[in-house]
Amino acid sequence: MDPRPEEHAISTTPPATELRFGVNYTPRRGWFHAWHDFDARHAREDLAQIAELGLDHIRVFHLWPLLQPNRTLIRTTAVDQLAHLVDLAAEVDLDVMVDGVQGHLSSFDFYPEWTRSWHHRNVFTDPEAIEAQATLLRTLGKALAGRPNLIGLQLGNELNNLVEHNPVTVHEVDHYLDTLLAAARDGLGTAGLVTHSAYDAAWYGDDHPFTPQASARKGDVTTVHPWVFSGDCARRYGPRSPQVHHLAEYGTELAKAYATDPARPVWVQETGAPEPHIPAADAPLFARETLLNAASCTNLWGITWWCSHDVDRSLADYPELEYTLGLFDSQGKPKPIAEAIEETITEVRTLPLTPSPRTAALVLDCTPSTRSTSGPGGAFFEEWMRLRAQGVRPAVVLAEHAGDSTYLAARGVTELIDAG
């Protein structure tokens, strides 16, 4: 493996917390519609394939309408299916993160009928809708608690995708997240992570109601989903560009800037190689560079690829990029990107590397209405990438912290760079 001496100090002992590598689990047969007729044999086959790559965890998603078809009804059978899947993963030594409210998956939104049509409720602001989701999360937490392979409980997948049909303010988002995070913790108890996730608009979108502060300060871990199609990054700069290969690394450093705790972990929870943004021939290199570059960040919890299996083309109406995101094709055959990921994580684990602190930091000065400066095409993003291409390993520091010597010392920052 390229040890990248300019980025790492080689340690004689493994890091205190081993870097985690996993995949977001998409059932090979029937996609997430497989929950309608859950088949443990099929799940075992999928999970065994994942484990054979050397991955150590999966992230799983049930469907909200199947779990909670009525505001006051949570189906025991559906909850039991989810618990069964967690147990099946344990059989092949896979740990599991469970997302509760789905919510949004691969361009489709799944709402229970009690939130729609004549019964429409804003899922972020309606008090009874919020309490129903809180009850669901408490129920899932209690059903899953105590399983040794359970990583934790997440509120749901990229819930900020739902804002278009559920208008909400920043204050209301904060109340929603606080309420649901407390409910998840109440159900799960003291063991395991309680988190939430948002797609890139939370970081790059001007005046988006889900804020970077909410992502970086609420829950136990900051989750980032640095997708190469956000801001048209791959098409703007090219699939083999530094901007694309360092995107997950950049997303991790950007997230760390918004945290109040300098030691707060960041989880690259979704990243992938969507065609045609990343052509299939470029996908193995993209995967390798993404993993190695992100692994150069301190306080990285882990990296979870999207996704395990391709969507079968017998299923209609997905955006084209959704059909080819898997590490395995729809027949269950590993693709070249799977082999690249397997080889890379084996190398990382064979030669444990302790990322060195980033002593130079680029100062980010933006407002909610100018947040796009930190996204692809934005001036701050391009300056960070310019420095990175020159061999500098910049951290990111918010302007409000630039004069705080205690904070900078905790981050290991000794030099501030004006973004200009």
Compact overview of the structure:
This protein is 35% helix and 16% strand.
Q: In CATH, what is the class of the largest domain?
A: Alpha Beta
What class do helices, strands and sheet pairing give? alpha/beta
Tally of domains: 2
Mean pLDDT: 95
Residue fraction in strands = 15-25%
Amino- and carboxy-terminal Cα gap: 36 Å
Poorly predicted runs of 5 or more residues: 1-16
What's the helix-strand series? Answer: EEHEHHEEEHEHEHHEHHHEHEHEEHEHE
Instruction: Report the strand count.
Output: 15
CATH fold descriptor of the largest domain = TIM Barrel
Give the helix proportion (percent range): 25-40%
Count helical runs. 14
Overall CATH architecture of the largest domain: Alpha-Beta Barrel
The largest sheet, given as strand count, sense and whether it forms a barrel, is: 8 strands, parallel
Give the overall shape: globular
How many whole angstroms does the radius of gyration measure?
A: 21 Å
Task: Please outline the helices and strands.
Blueprint lengths: L7 E3 L9 E5 L15 H13 L4 E5 L2 H4 L8 H16 L3 E7 L2 E2 L2 E2 L17 H18 L5 E7 L13 H19 L4 E3 L5 H4 L7 H6 L4 E3 L8 H5 L4 H4 L1 H12 L7 E6 L11 H12 L5 E7 L29 H15 L2 E3 L4 E5 L14 H11 L5 E4 L6 H7 L3 E4 L2
Parallel strand pairs: 2-3, 2-11, 3-4, 4-7, 7-8, 9-10, 10-11, 13-14, 13-15
Antiparallel strand pairs: 1-12, 5-6
Structural account:
Keywords: Hydrolase. InterPro entries: GH. GO terms for molecular function: hydrolase activity. This protein has 420 residues and is of the alpha/beta class. The chain folds into 2 domains: 11-355, Glycosidases (TIM Barrel, Alpha-Beta Barrel); 356-420, Rossmann fold (3-Layer(aba) Sandwich), CATH 3.40.50. 35% of the residues lie in helices and 16% in strands. The strands form 4 sheets. Strands 8-7-4-3-2-11-10-9 form an 8-stranded parallel β-sheet. Strands 14-13-15 form a 3-stranded parallel β-sheet. Helix 5 links the parallel strand 7 and strand 8 (193-195).
